[in-house]
């Protein structure tokens, strides 16, 4: 049986006799034995994330005050 691993994804193979194999499968089309192996596909793409900060404005004010007063 053939299966595809898309761009930005990786794959490990679960073998019913040997458990999870240590090889990481890259993108592309691969062959597996359907009754013996099961592919486990992971999305490894990074995504931008915004983390809100409560003290963000206070920090900016403090930096501006330090830079205008000449202190470091």
TrEMBL record:
TM ranges: none
Subcellular location: Mitochondrion inner membrane
Protein origin, superkingdom: Eukaryota
GO cellular component: mitochondrial inner membrane
First-listed, main subcellular location of the protein, grouped into a coarse class: mitochondrion
Residue stretches in coiled coil: none
Record-level GO BP terms: mitochondrion organization
Source organism phylogeny: Eukaryota, Metazoa, Spiralia, Gnathifera, Rotifera
Family named by the database record: Belongs to the prohibitin family.
Protein name in the entry: Prohibitin
InterPro entries cross-referenced by the UniProt entry: Prohibitin
Keyword list, A-Z: Membrane, Mitochondrion, Mitochondrion inner membrane
